[in-house]
Design brief:
single chain, metal ion binding, Globin-like, Elongation Factor Tu (Ef-tu), domain 3, seven-stranded mixed beta sheet, 438 residues, alpha/beta, six-stranded antiparallel beta sheet
Length: 438
Amino acid sequence: MSAPLDEKTRALVVATVPALKAHGLAITEEMYKRLLSHPEIRDLFNLSHQRDLEQPKALALAVLAYAEHINDLGKLRGMVERIAEKHVGLNILPEHYPFVADALIGAIKHVLGDAATPEIIDAWGKAYWFLADVLIGREKQIYDEHEHAPGGWKGWREFTVRARHKETPFITSFDLVPVDGKPLFHHKAGQYLSFKLDIPGHGSQRRNYSISSAPGADHYRITVKRHDQGVVSTWLHDSVQVGDILQAANPAGDFFLDEASHAPVVLLAAGVGLTPLISMIEDLVATHSGRKIHYVLGADTVDLAAFVPFVTSLATAGKLTAEFFFAKGNVPAGNLPGQPVAQSNVASSGWLHRTLSHLTGSKRTIPEAVSSAGITVHSGHITQDWLRKNLDHAATYYICGPDSFMRDMIETLRNEQLSGSQIRYEIFGSASDPALVI
């Protein structure tokens, strides 16, 4: 464990905050350029996040947050835990850290030029290794916990694709079972798997996918949305079949269901952000928690909304309530706004699926919600105004989706004075939005 940073070092790091605000992205772009010149390091990264600058933006925000809070590092506890969990998922090891140190310090010198005095460089060197030691220590704890837990492992483990399920035209689930036939680590509902994949024509790739199945099952299920330009998602959809083998690291992530709580649960999702929340729903139902569950999903169309029949069946059984928002949704003729739909049709699993399957085909938009049997269907987006009007101050909110969606939801909940422990969220990819960094 590193000794605490001395006052002079912390003061010099704080003094670089204006420069980081002005040139932070240039520094992290240069840093990644240097870092990814090493093949053994390049293979650890999702390179698509380099092309859209998501990862350099996220790192620039993290470095700035570190500099701004270096005198009160307790505020960065959540950020540090999130980074450590992602590093464990990717099998980042202590020997990788010197590469990052050289790249970061070199990038600061390159971008800031003469402003990067020897004193500044020395201070940032000490600051980097202090944080690196914290992360290395925490990562070792997680690695050890995983390796010694029942069903746990360290490094990469081979899994066979036991089944594929086409959830929608654009979303497919894959059931994975261990090749060695040994037990599975009991993941926490909401966590993800990290994969090391060899894609023909694209080489080694790393991706994280949330586990959409309940803890304790005999398999892990991941649910993947196909992206037109997505190298890995396209390969999974088009090429990976039953019997194929994938390599995955132990489940990881700091976004998971608090099973010790008895508070109501509100699950807010947009798009494929629903995947970790489906695992939470399955866990809550399987453990007979008795907690009030309210599931809210926003999607452009029903073709981007997986597990609608599953959620519908739970709602009709009284196990949860659900609301679906479709930005491009229309209600079919015969189900006009304000007209309740017969319970028998819902229970037969036909109503909601038939209704939603026609949502994009009718010219009748839904000016108001259509409700029946614990389910409400809206046109439009999940908005901050809707959230304020329907706020449950006693609930814990679990949020997952695009950064802009999460920012709006989190901002609203914070403004309504919900505590930090009541607002939990997962970031797909890197935290490139300032509101999501800490």
